Amino acid sequence: MPDMKLELQVNGRKVTRRADPGQRLLDFLRDELNLTGTKEGCGAGECGTCSVFVDGKLVKSCLMPAAKAQGADIQTVEGLARPGDLDVIQKAFHKTGASQCGYCIPGMVMAATSILREAPEASLDEIKERMGGNICRCTGYSKIIEAVALARDVVTGRASPAALDPETVGDSFIGHNVRRLDAPSKVTGRLKYAGDMVMPDMLHMAVLRSPHAHAEILSIDTSEAEAMDGVACVITADDVPGKDGFGVFVHDQPIMARGKVRHVGEAVAAVAAEDVATARRALKKIKVEYRELPGLYDPEDALQPGAPVIHDYAPDNVVKHIPIRKGDIEAGFAAADLILEDEFTTQQVEHAYLEPEAGLAYVDADDVVTVISPSQNITHHRHMLSEIIARPINKVRFIMSPVGGGFGGKEDMIYQGMLALAAMKTYRPVRLVFTREESIIASAKRHPSRVKYRMGLTKEGRITAIKFDMLSDGGAYGMSSEGVMRKAAILSCGPYEVENLQVDTTAVYTNNTPSGAFRTFGGMQAQFATESMIDIAAERLGLDPFEIRRRNMMRAGSLTHTQQKLDSASIGRVLAAAEAASRWEPGAPRMRGPERGDLGGPGTRAPCTLGARFEASKDGKERVA
Amino acid sequence: MQRKMRGRGVAASWYGIARTATVDRAGAWAELDDGGTAKVVTGVTEIGEGILTVLAQIAAEELGIRPEDVTIGDNDTARSPEAAHAGATRQTYMIGNSVALACREAKSRLFAEIAAHWEVDAGTLVAFDGALKAHGTNLAMTMAEAVDIAKKRGVVPVGAGHFTAHGTGLNPVDGSGAPWQAYVFGTQVAEVEVDTLTGEVQVLGLWAAHDVGRVINPRGVEGQIEGGVVQGLGQALMEDYRTEQGHTTTHGFAKYILPTALDVPEITSVLVEDPDPLSPLGAKGIGEPALVPTAPAIMNAIHDAIGVRIKSLPATPEKVLAAIAEKEARDAAREAAE
């Protein structure tokens, strides 16, 4: 491999290293200098987690070849404050609770630093604009922006440095704004996520993924890859010693494709090698013979007679159907003055946690197979892996590393099994870090949904009956589909007491990217439909949307859709709280925006006018700013 | 129609706390340690929601010490009791209550020793912020001294706790059952501006009122609401994972569009407390529920602004423009007919 001598300044210290000229500055900082505060979120310059200063200019280090940093002065998040200390911006992030998972935070801190250096008097709008290149998936940005504004005010003397101090506690720590204990390690980049961890003698894994949505695997030839220098092992489904199969509900997914592939991006084989580049090169030497099969890409098609079967155990392609029945919907609709029918759809949604999947596995001195990863369910993963690798449960250990965003997406054991198998095969530590593209094609998404809705109401706005039918694309594997359908069904008709209802939720297999757990677990898809229907009903009946909700809401003693008696129901209180806080002007939802008197007041921001901006100049003419 | 139209919409929601339609369980260990500090051991760790800080607050409150005195050992199936998974809006409820119960046991061991040492009734002891007192007396010491005394009397103040949430399975025919023992409710109001020339929707204000049972950390709850709202906004207006014949066409953040700081409305969180009567803490949860009403509130606001209903998420500019064109055609046809 060609290399060059690289001389540069990093955080005020001279650094001289031999480096691969093709290496990205990001890799040089992380792998050569172990400055892992600089994170990789996307590898494409789109998320900002890898931001560093190069000669004082904020740069996304995933886009810059290390060779171009020859002679440059680099500053990373580790160089902002003295070790063990926090600078003003870091203190402000700590104070406001700006860090959640923390993975985007070093990049955010760097972007904020750049603002205070270049535009110390920046307005809130300018702060937002300058932070616009950094993605955060946890915080909704609000507390980050608050932190930057606070730091700005302290730096410019508008606020006292005491504004950064913790709030004093009264007579209880419950209900008190205790600052996050993990914030200092997150705002300084000190916290090690799985992809930041290294062990002596560690191997690096790369995964061969299916290019087909549905295909039979006729043969896999790994011999050429295995013979390569630097390759420690290649694993396939044949290396699984126990009962292969994982899933949150049904264990229908093998560690690596077994006999056939069911979605594009499914793991087929994996290589563990001395470095990532070698592992990736070895993937190209693995020969897989496929025979393509007819695929299913629409959940309606999956239910047609004669549709291709994705899993033999489910010849009807149904992952799960959940029925809920209460009362008599025929009688309910007969009693209605108004019957509404409509259809609602929601899309597949990517979790987009900033930390791509990563893990590290090893076999310890007591022969315990240990996997460190940002798993959201180490308990269940331990159970499943124990069966898959046929080892007693006390010989399987899962350690949950700091999770750089999960939202349900890290409940599926989609890579930990491969790491365990490679560690068992080599008796060396093995690390795998997904690329963003890999994360997107291999991990579960929010279930898309189609809801057919029928709602009957009296002219006073009381719901008399609901018929609710949801069909969801579960994708290639079951993952959390069963639970998502269950929760969607239970919550379907919203916080309202409905005497007569018929609810069905169904998830089916297709050859699309699997759907799985995602924050609300089916609750938002179902209630999007219900809350839209209620608004339509209010419009038709001339009722205020708060009022129609109050007329139907659950109360203490109400029976839920699953006929559970509630001891209390706070829906009346939250309706009143939102109505008061938003200064809601009552009225039926009949496009009254143009006449409303409650718009644009406290609690709103000015519209963003980014793009071509026009400024009125002194002569009265507008010009592009 | 003017180019920029504004409107408001509301949506309500409900949600169950902890695992669905099953018995949920979690365990934790606690030890009052030297120096008046504490170790708390639990099987989960932070996924960003702030659970470690919440657990430290709970432990501090229960033990009478400070949150920064609490060391949390977490996240390891070989070293910590089972806490099960980090999801289902169950962390504060399941792990928080387990930690509270473990701490109560540890504290009762310590208090028994100090009560004997002071020759007072253990029920008179109160501890807060590192200081221990016997109510109605002048007796006082630091928690550091208290732990030292307990150990000199031969007792290590340890405790274990577990918490159960009694959900029941659903009847397979009619779905009847009691899937959760604790429910939360929420309501959000969105104010939007629709650019009828470009189809772009901006959410300018969002008011989010949520029952969380009991607030442990107000900023933490707000952070969960703000994050949930912005994820809901992303799903409402821009995010769309797409595949063609099973191949994704949105394989990176250039194609898969996420909300940035510029998309975020001003968010006003209103925290409502309807304490859970079935658990020691009374707290419920907020992680997932915060997201539920956001998209329908925004869609209802779009309707209020321009009179079209977007029933298929996301409400991209293309979809909004198509809906406006359809409405205009419909209105024109109606006028022609009249």
Explained architecture:
The complex is a heterodimer of chains A (625) and B (338). By secondary structure, chain A is an alpha+beta fold. Among the domains of chain A are: 4-37 and 52-73, Roll (Ubiquitin-like (UB roll)); 88-167 and 179-191, [2Fe-2S]-binding domain (DNA polymerase, domain 1, Orthogonal Bundle), CATH 1.10.150.120. Chain A has 17 helices and 24 strands. A 7-stranded mixed β-sheet of chain A has the order 8-10-6-17-14-15-16. A 5-stranded mixed β-sheet of chain A has the order 2-1-5-3-4, sandwiched between helices. Chain B has helices spanning 51-63, 91-118, 143-152, 218-237, 294-306, 317-337, and strands at 4-16, 23-33, 37-42, 70-74, 125-128, 131-134, 140-142, 158-166, 183-195, 201-211, 243-244, 247-248, 266-272. Chain B contains 6 helices and 13 strands. By secondary structure, chain B is of the alpha+beta class. Chain B folds into 2 domains: 4-16 and 182-337, 2-Layer Sandwich (Aldehyde Oxidoreductase, domain 4), CATH 3.30.365; 23-164, Aldehyde Oxidoreductase, domain 4 (2-Layer Sandwich), CATH 3.30.365. Chain B is elongated, with a radius of gyration of 26 Å. In chain B, a hairpin with a 3-residue loop joins strand 2 and strand 3. At the A-B interface, helix 4, helix 5, strand 12, strand 13 and helix 11 of A face strand 1, helix 1, strand 9, strand 10 and helix 4 of B.
